[in-house]
Q: What sequence folds into this?
């Protein structure tokens, strides 16, 4: 198995999906609105907790349709 360097080294990493899910559940109890957090297997071979890519894609699509501005989308003033 070839492990790549972690693209998100700042994120907490877990050795198993169970450990990541346990952490995610803790987050859900502490904070509202984080129910879209998922445990995912990183290219580094460890598990992270983060927002699901589907939700991110949906948010980006909505922003592209002009419903919601993306944070940092106003880098250039045309
Ligand atoms: Zn990683």
A:
């Amino acid at each position: 198995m070839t492990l790549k360097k972690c693209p998100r080294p700042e994120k907490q990493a877990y050795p198993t999906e169970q450990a990541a899910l346990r952490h995610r559940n803790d987050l859900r109890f502490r904070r509202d609105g984080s129910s879209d957090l998922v445990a995912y297997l990183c290219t580094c071979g460890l598990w992270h907790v983060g927002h699901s890519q589907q939700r991110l894609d949906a948010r980006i699509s909505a922003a592209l349709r002009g419903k919601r501005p993306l944070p940092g989308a106003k880098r250039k003033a045309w």
